[in-house]
Design a protein that fits this description.
By secondary structure, the protein is mostly beta strands. The chain folds into two domains: 100 residues, SH3 type barrels (Roll); 151 residues, 3-Layer(aba) Sandwich (Protein Transport Mog1p, Chain A). 14% of the residues lie in helices and 41% in strands. It has an eight-stranded antiparallel sheet with strand order 12-13-14-15-19-18-17-16. A five-stranded antiparallel sheet has the order 9-8-6-3-10, with no helix packed on it. The longest helix has 18 residues. It starts with 10 loop residues before the first strand and ends with a helix.
Length: 286
């Protein structure tokens, strides 16, 4: 469960010649770097020194600036690779603890932050989960979630990531503040629907590499209209005619990869369920 961070800002930007209200997209800051200039720098979950400390970085650690400006006048929003965990995280650092490794062209103050910040992450691989972690512990490992909500009695934190080089939303589900289930939802958008079959095979191959051959594999045809025409199998999935799945079992986790669809939409997911916390999750959903 490693590597991370998010990016769309909505708000008011104060420029040196006045106040201008805009709704910017990416500000081209990802390639801009900062370096820790003090003995150490705390990275915070929010632009507030009383918020959770995500990580502490040593002098000369390099960070990437996510937006060309400051939050609340003294905070930079950054991402970095954690020396402790190897994961990519995002958070806020005080400007007094870092030095810029680029020439700032202008000063922009971000007055308001949306809930939909999105950041480019380094690609991850599938790993075993650490079940029972609290929401706070996951935030310390992953950084700030892009979304939080409640689903059928379970608290959910979402992160936007790249898994085996595919765009993916990762949902962490908590039953009574214990991580009990993780779902990876892959966000392909292809004109050729057979490309989803290729992504499913790529996901399956990565899981086989990590966990060995699946315990079970299934190909369910609910309607066999396209069964003898492989070139139309992607179409069959999108119509709900075909569903594919593979299942693995470890000492701690049940893992299920599935490719399914309906109404011309296709969904590729991998779900990890903590075996010892299954009953707790069921009770929370009741």
């Amino acid at each position: 469960m490693r590597n991370r961070a998010k990016g769309i800002i909505r708000g008011a930007f104060l420029l040196s010649l006045g106040v201008l209200v805009v709704r910017p997209g990416h500000l081209g800051a990802f390639e801009k770097k900062l370096r820790v200039a003090s003995d150490y720098a705390h990275v915070y979950l929010q632009p507030d020194s009383s918020s959770t400390i995500i990580d502490t970085l040593e002098r000369d650690h390099i960070l990437s600036l996510l937006y060309s400006g400051k939050m609340k006048k003294t905070w930079y929003y950054v991402c970095f690779k954690s020396e402790k965990t190897g994961s990519t995280k995002s958070g806020y650092v005080l400007d007094s603890t870092v030095e810029l490794l680029f020439d700032p062209l202008k000063t922009i103050t971000i007055a308001e932050e949306s809930e939909n910040l999105r950041v480019s992450y380094a690609p991850r691989n599938f790993e075993e989960m650490h079940w029972g972690l609290s929401k706070k512990q996951v935030v310390e490992l992953e950084g700030k979630p892009s979304d939080q909500r409640k689903v059928r009695g379970l608290e959910v934190m979402r992160y936007q990531q790249r898994i085996i080089n595919l765009d993916c939303a990762i949902d962490y589900f908590f039953a009574t503040n214990k991580l009990s289930l993780t779902r990876f939802s892959f966000a392909g958008d292809y004109l050729d629907k057979n490309a989803y079959l290729q992504d499913y095979q790529k996901v399956k191959d990565a899981l086989v590499q990590k966990f060995g051959r699946p315990l079970e594999e299934a190909m369910k045809w609910r309607d066999t209209s396209y069964k003898d025409d492989f070139a139309s199998w992607g179409e069959a999935v999108s119509l709900g005619h075909l569903e594919m799945s593979s299942r693995w079992l470890t000492s701690q986790t049940e893992i299920t990869a599935s490719l399914s669809g309906a109404d011309d939409e296709i969904l590729l997911t991998v779900e990890y369920a903590g075996l010892q916390l299954k009953e707790l999750a069921k009770k929370s959903e009741e």
